[in-house]
Give the backbone structure.
Amino acid sequence: MQVSLFTTCLTDSYYPQAALATVRLLQHLGCTVDCPTAQTCCGQPQFNNGLHDQARSLARHFIDTFQHAPAIVSPSASCTAMIRDYYEQLFADDAAYLPRARDIIAKTFEITEFITTVLQPDLAALNPRSTGRITYHYSCHSRGLNLSPDVTINLIKSIEGIDYVPLEKMDQCCGFGGTFAVKLPDVSAALVTDKVACIRATNADTVVVNDGGCTLNIAGACRRQRLPVRFVHVAQLLAEALGLMDHPGDMHP
Amino acid sequence: MSTTDRQQFLDRLRHALADHHGDPDVAPLTPADYEQARLTPSSTTPAGLAERFTEMASDAGMIVHPVASTADLTSQLTSLLDELSISTLLLPHDPLLDSLALRGQLAQRADLTLLDLPADRETLTEAAFNADAALSVATYALAETGSLVLTASADTPRLLSLAPPVHLCLLPVSRLLGDLLDLLALYDASALPPSVTLVTGPSKTADIEMTLVQGAHGPIAEHILLLSNQEHTE
Amino acid sequence: MTATSHNKHPFPKAIKTALANDYLQHALDTYPRQRTGRVVNALKELPDLEHVRQQARRIRDYSLAHLDTLLAQLADNLEQHGGHVHWARDADHARQLITDIAGQHNCRLAVKTKSMTTEEIALTDALSRAGLETYETDMGELILQLDNDHPSHIITPMIHKSRQQVGRLFQQKLGISYTDDPAQLIGAARAHLRDKFRRADLGIIGVNFAVSQTGSLVMLTNEGNGRLTAARPRVCVALMGMEKVIPSLADLALLLKLTVRSAVGSRITVYTNIITGPARPDEPDGPEQLHLVILDNGRSNILASPYRDLLACLRCGACLNACPVYRKIGGHAYGSVYPGPIGTALTPLLEPDLHTTKNMLELCSLCGACLERCPVNIDIPRLVINQRRDLNNARGNSRLYRCGLAAWAWAYRTPGRYTFCQRALRLLLRPLARKGWIRRLPSPWTAVRDLPLPAKKLFRDLWKQDRQKP
């Protein structure tokens, strides 16, 4: 199956290992992957803050870049949700782009949903193995895709040898929310402090977070509080467990 | 004046709605749609209804006393009155209570004062707020939620089942309905009286630190005498 | 806070105060999640929750689309049963109508149930100024009234108060000896209000739903104060937001099953009162006069707007319990009658005021937890984003952010500019970094977190490198 990678700007600049793992995983599961290097950003920061004209200009570029992609897969739920939930609205009054936007919407997926609903591999047969005490933070924007926490939890649990420990208040917002973190800094700080405390309580060595924004926020706070946990995208965890990565890497090479 | 107020108000709404004329029409729900929310199957037997009612009512903090026959009723009622130390009981006129000759039997008890319901507001208030308990008869009851359905009338004022701290309610099983959909369908067909109240439990509140306290402003205890006397018809 | 917030609510200060309040933080961390747990369990009892939610939304959408005819039908039916219907343009008009009714009937003592709509029009103050002794009767609202305080949650109004605070308050205001046992405190409140219920000549009730086909008003309570308020006083006034009307009793049945579970996690409230007119002439209690006051107060503007969905709200409070922002700052920090997600989306439209709008719309991280829990699927995040768009188009938002985000969009519109920016950013930040992390920047970000440097090799670089592998 042919797939185009929608890297997302955050993943491209801060978490390239997560994108690399996504590609290797897709390839291992039988896909041919290409990555249009013309891509930039889906326009979510502008859209969320009400700059819809500017968001549209970025979205047009996205649509132009990916119009010929057979399927579009992204490691980020928030960026995928931007496309699926909001592109229709963005182009409601644009007769030229609306049908193209709809076409893009129909073929854009987040990686875990793509694996579990489209590829549906027999993971047990693939025999992913690893070690470590793993916990998982559920990124808010997964809600926008109707993605239940169980999807990633089941992927984690499919890995032989790891010890999965549930995170308390797993689905409570980490406080990133894009510009929210700097516009409502005290509340954002309270939320991320809460999240770090919950992580600390798990005694996990690895935290699975599937969203670059959440990771930037929570990993940054963990580092500040000297909590030495490793942050990975579930694609990375799986790819490592399948021996697909040259070397186990942190999100920050 | 009021009519102009109404006219202006509704005109403002019509004007507001005119902006949405392009919106797709919303169809009203069909009977099948409402049935999606049914919780008590229509096929539930009378015994099933009684069982479900008892379970739900008990869950809601009401005490359900099954009464097998009218003979049992008086003895169960009098033990209950003793147990709860009731010395003044408000007793309304009600066709069922009258047919069971309850008044006569209770009147024989030395330590119990039966109170009639006064016909004027002020004395009624005094009586209702001072009585230890009141006995009333449920118009219907709902198995789905364990609710009593009480209707106000000339003989059964609102305060009867509300002001005294203890409410005793007689409920013949034949008056049990399955689902809220069934109850409200009944009222759809016939006119609603001014006051219908579903009572599901003694009054309660969790306002202070979400700590549940039984007994707020309404009755502190609800006792249901579930009468399954098959000879009895109404 | 007052109903008309033309005074500028100090958002940053209120938020800081809330975050520093240990008891509030404990309460907000504990109770909403506890309640959500119960709610989720209760909703599992519904055979097909998603389907019921959709049907509930359809009922609300239908009602809003036919609001004029439904309200007319409600009024006609209620009047046919002997009730009086009044049409209040705004808060001022509603206050005037109600105080006039009280005056006409020489009312001296009023008891009222919990009603967010009465909060919206600041009714208690108005009645007091008109010379009526007015008592809140909902336990939480009573406590708040005694303390000159205001609700901070739609359903659990005094979530911000501890039992010790209530104990001290009752000691001071009710003259009882100190106790912080909730059962004893409630007992004292019961005794205190019983006398008021006995003597009240005016009852004010809120309305959860109004059924147009039967002319009925539905009031849901657990405490019995609602029943007492509608039973004993000769005059009863019901205040209702105009959007509360629904067509039929079948609609009521479906909505009750969903709303009560979403609000409190129970199948049904202790008391479900269906009031269809004043008492009959031969009934010794109940209201001799029943007056329904239907309130607009900005709702017709919302009805006309693209934000009409907000009027579908059932006032169940589930969104507040789900919201991470509400659970950190509590209701008072919003500075509005309606806090939480519904408040954030609704307040700028009910009370258009730049200061309020600008600040309220920021009290949202767009996490979507509210939408997940809303029984009628109101897409609050989208409505917040769209209001931010309106604000941006009106140049009401921060110039700094507007220009910054616009510049960012320009920079990211072509791959060339984008790549240049990423490399430039790394170059700029590198001197500030130790081991790939930056500890201090002139930004609130670094108050509690480090910021990583962008990767030396962007993914697109790794991609090109990877593709060259055999």
In short: Chain C has 22 helices and 13 strands.
